[in-house]
Amino acid sequence: MNSTAPNLPRRRAAIFWIVIYALVIAAPLLLVRLTQQGHGQQGFLKELSNNLALAGFAILVLQFVLAARIPRTESPFGLDYLLRFHRAMGLLAVLMLLAHPVLLAWGIGRWWLLTRFIVPWPVELGRLALLTLVVTVITAIWRQSLRLEYQRWRNWHGRMVVFVLVLAFVHSMVLGIGGRDRGDLSAWPARALWFALAACALGAYAYHRWFHRFYHRKILHEVTNVKQESRDVWTLTFAPVSPRHRRVHVPGQFHYITVLNPDVPREEHPFSISSSPATADGVASTIKIVGDFTAQVPKIKPGDRAYIRGPFGRFSYLTGAPERPLVLIAGGVGITPLMSMLRHLRDTRANRSVLLVFVNRSEEDIIFREELAAMESLDRPQLQVVHVLSRPSAGWQGCRGRLNRQILAELLRGQVLEKDYYVCGPPAMAEATMRLLREMGVPQFSIHSEQFSY
Ligand SMILES: Cc1cc2nc3c(=O)[nH]c(=O)nc-3n(C[C@H](O)[C@H](O)[C@H](O)COP(=O)(O)OP(=O)(O)OC[C@H]3O[C@@H](n4cnc5c(N)ncnc54)[C@H](O)[C@@H]3O)c2cc1C
Question: Cβ(272) to ligand 1 under 6 A?
Fold first, then answer.
């Protein structure tokens, strides 16, 4: 690995956090079963129902930690992966917690728990928590289909999950302590664990919402350069206001930018870093206009200030085997993390064979065209650039149409194995390309992807 890029954390850290994650989910089950008297006399369905509630609550707590962008837990996996996992586990928690009242009512033969409108208040709290959780998870998974605006959804999501946690905590505490038929949380170690889990979730939330903002990872930068790359794509270059805050990223990572300009919404947005970590010119992001925030990017001027948080992510050729040929596949502005990798390969004169397949609509949409052509003429890396255009002009000599199996097979000359593939672009294009690669026999572990949405 080159000295200009920091070492990416090892696999051991990932295994460590996976074990901790599994232990936190198992801990309430184990502790309750070890400390509760009369365990085993509850009946199978009731016990299963309670186990699902215990594990479901632990998963909810861990959802806060996964989303908190804590550097130690983020770096072994990459934030985008963690957030996708967060979404999948949210769905699992909902299914487990939905099964809890059904199995309980069935197990103890009290179907009125489900059917009656008026029930004891702790049960009512549980119902409200579950209903809110279902809505929260549905709006998270289908946010785009439901056309929910991202920033508004994000603020709402943050508040709702705290509401769910508090309701679920009170519900489980009151009913879990139980009366004469001692409940799952009747023993003090189980209760102590329950408090610790709730505190852990609220601590992660506070870290993410407040402490994180003032922590050293959010650094004040100045915009040093603004460059228009194409009709709707701009590159912003930033330098830290205090040079001692300069951070070295791994080529391919992304960061969050909040621009401090009165004409630009003060929102935090993720953008890949398109510059090489080997350059002293500052850190750059190349941004395509797609919505409310990005439409204001042309208003940003040199001298404007911005907060930058990060870098995040593990999408980098430095995570793969150092000797394998690279195949980089970009769709439109998805070139940005790959450009950072290419610039780093160039700046470090890496002896690597690289094929870049760059998919765009038309010639006007191709960004970095001259720079890529100049890189192709170098002996290190040995770069071949292939442009694929879906709507080229009549005179276009290169590949036409969508990237398909035939084009890829020709470019790879039938040799698909022993290469590392890095795919980045809009979600639909990235998914389709990865499917294509798998169909062509590329093993999953050789395919790396970054999607500009989570
Ligand atoms: C890891 C990552 C790297 C990215 N790198 C680049 C890049 O190098 N260049 C580039 O042009 N774009 C990049 N994007 C996409 C960029 O973040 C969005 O295009 C931008 O946030 C859109 O904001 P908007 O208000 O203009 O558009 P909107 O219409 O509000 O949003 C369009 C879509 O962008 C996503 N989005 C919006 N706001 C946020 C946010 N605050 N956080 C996360 N996602 C959001 C949502 O999926 C939303 O549906 C990246 C996204 C991710 C997740």
Answer: yes
- Asked if residue 80 has its Cβ within 6 Å of ligand 1, the reply is yes
Question: Is there an atom of ligand 1 within 6 Å of 81 CB?
Answer: no
Report the SS3 class of residue 327.
strand
Percentage of the residues of the chain whose pLDDT score is greater than 90: 70
Q: Give the residue, by CA position, lying nearest to ligand 1 atom 39.
A: 269
Nearest CA to ligand 1 atom 35: 453
Q: Where exactly does CATH 3.40.50.80 map onto the chain?
A: 317-451
**Main-chain dihedrals φ then ψ at residue 20, nearest 5 degrees:** -60, -40
Mean pLDDT for 60-77 is: 89
Tens digit of pLDDT for each residue in 71-121? 788 888 888 889 889 999 999 999 999 999 999 999 999 999 899 999 999
Which atom of ligand 1 is the closest one to the Cα of 336? Answer: 8
pLDDT digits (tens, 9 = 90+) for 108-151: 999 998 999 999 999 999 999 999 999 999 999 999 899 999 98
Q: Judge if the beta carbon of residue 297 lies within 6 A of ligand 1.
A: no
Q: What pLDDT shows up at residue 42?
A: 67
Residue closest via CA to ligand 1's atom 31 equals 291
Question: What does the pLDDT read at residue 139?
Answer: 95
CA 127 – CA 117 distance, rounded (Å)? 11
Q: How far apart are CA 369 and CA 376, in angstroms?
A: 11
Superfamily (CATH) of domain 218-312: Translation factors (2.40.30.10)
Q: In whole angstroms, what is the distance from residue 261 CA to residue 296 CA?
A: 10
pLDDT of 218 reads 77
Res 289 pLDDT > 80: yes
C-beta of 194 in contact with ligand 1 (< 6 A) = no
Which residue spans of the chain are classified as CATH 2.40.30.10? Answer: 218-312
Give the CATH fold of the 11-214 domain. Answer: Four Helix Bundle (Hemerythrin (Met), subunit A) (1.20.120)
Q: Is 454 in the pocket of ligand 1 (CB under 6 A)?
A: yes
Listed in order, the ranges of the chain carrying CATH 1.20.120 are 11-214
At 40, is the pLDDT very low, low, confident or very high (cuts 50, 70, 90)?
low
Pick the CATH number of 317-451 from 3.30.70.100, 3.40.50.80, 3.30.70.120, 3.30.1330.60: 3.40.50.80
Strands laid side by side in the 305-312 sheet: 268-272, 254-260, 305-312, 218-230, 233-240, 283-288
Cis upstream peptide for 381 (omega within 30°):
yes
